[in-house]
Design a protein that fits this description.
The protein is built from three helices and 16 strands. The longest helix has 21 residues. The chain has a 16-stranded mixed sheet that branches. The chain is flat. Strand 4 and strand 5 form a beta hairpin.
Length: 264
C-alpha cells in the first residue's frame, strides 16, 4: 500500500468518526473541523515519528530515480521539503551522482557547469508527507568519488546524515522544528558545515581521528559537548587541541535559538 494512501485513509477515518459522534449528538456540527485539525496534526506527527521504520525499504525494491555523474569531479546537491523524513549518505554506484526514492509531486533537475554537476530535488508542494515515496521517506545515496556540497532546506522534518564515506566539501542545513542525526565524514579535508535552525534537536557524532571546531550562536540552546575531545576556547568556540595541524577537520557553525544540541 502506498504511504500516502494509508495516511489519507486514516485521516478520512478520523473525519468519519467525528461525523459519527456528531450524528449521535455527542459533539456539535460546528466543532467537527475544530477537532479534525488537531487530529490531522497528530497523524502527521505519528507519520514523522514512525518514518525511520518505513524508510528501511531498499532503493532497489522501491520506485527510485538516479542522475548520472557524467565524469563530473564535483557534485552540488540541493534538497527542499516542507515536512517528512529524509536520509543522506553514500552508496551510489560509481557512474551515478545521486539516486533516491521517488514520489508523486517531486521534481528533479540537473545541470552541468564545467567540472560540477548540480542536482536539485524538490519534494513537491505537499505540506505533509503525503506525496512521498512508498518507503515512507526520502532516501538519497550520493557519489563517493566526487567532491560533494549539500544544501538542505526543510521545515519540520526528521533528517539523518551518514556522511562517513563522502568527500564532503560543505553542508548547509536550514530547518525549523526538526530532529537531526549526523555522523561526520571519516576523512574530511577542511569541510564546512553550517546550521540555521530553531526549536530543533541535533545530535552530531564525530569519528575518531577527525578534528572539529564548533561555534554556536543564539539564545536558549541546550548544548552538550564532549569537552574531553573538544575543549571550550576563550572565544566561546569548542575546538580540538590539534585542529590547526589535523589532516582531517570540520568547521561547524550553528545559529538559532531554543535548540537541543549534542556533539560527541
Amino acid at each position: 500500500m502506498k504511504s500516502g494512501n494509508l495516511f489519507w485513509g486514516l485521516a478520512l477515518m478520523a473525519l468519519g468518526g467525528l461525523f459519527f459522534l456528531q450524528a449521535r449528538g455527542l459533539i456539535a456540527m460546528a466543532d467537527i473541523w475544530g477537532y479534525f485539525a488537531p487530529l490531522l496534526l497528530i497523524l502527521g506527527g505519528l507519520w514523522v515519528l514512525t518514518g525511520a521504520l518505513r524508510m528501511q525499504v531498499s532503493l532497489d525494491k522501491a520506485p527510485s530515480f538516479s542522475v548520472a555523474l557524467e565524469n563530473a569531479q564535483k557534485l552540488f546537491f540541493e534538497f527542499n521539503t516542507g515536512m517528512g523524513q529524509a536520509s543522506f549518505g553514500g552508496g551510489a554506484p560509481p557512474e551515478v551522482a545521486v539516486r533516491g526514492a521517488s514520489g508523486a509531486g517531486m521534481n528533479v533537475r540537473s545541470q552541468r557547469e564545467g567540472d560540477m554537476l548540480k542536482v536539485d530535488v524538490d519534494a513537491g508542494p505537499s505540506v505533509l508527507p503525503l506525496l512521498g515515496p512508498d518507503g515512507g521517506g526520502w532516501r538519497f545515496e550520493l557519489s563517493e568519488s566526487a567532491l560533494v556540497s549539500l544544501e538542505i532546506d526543510a521545515g519540520a522534518a526528521s533528517l539523518d546524515f551518514d556522511l562517513r564515506p563522502l568527500r564532503l566539501s560543505s553542508l548547509k542545513v536550514e530547518c525549523g522544528a526538526s530532529s537531526i542525526h549526523m555522523t561526520l565524514p571519516e576523512r574530511p579535508e577542511n569541510t564546512r558545515i553550517d546550521f540555521e535552525m530553531g526549536a530543533a534537536s541535533l545530535d552530531v557524532t564525530v569519528p575518531q581521528g577527525v578534528a572539529l571546531r564548533l561555534k554556536v550562536e543564539g539564545g536558549a540552546n541546550a548544548l552538550t559537548v564532549d569537552e574531553s575531545r573538544f575543549p571550550a576556547m576563550p572565544d566561546g568556540a569548542y575546538q580540538s587541541t590539534d585542529f590547526d595541524a589535523a589532516p582531517y577537520k570540520v568547521e561547524m557553525s550553528l545559529e538559532g535559538g531554543a535548540n537541543s544540541i549534542q556533539v560527541h
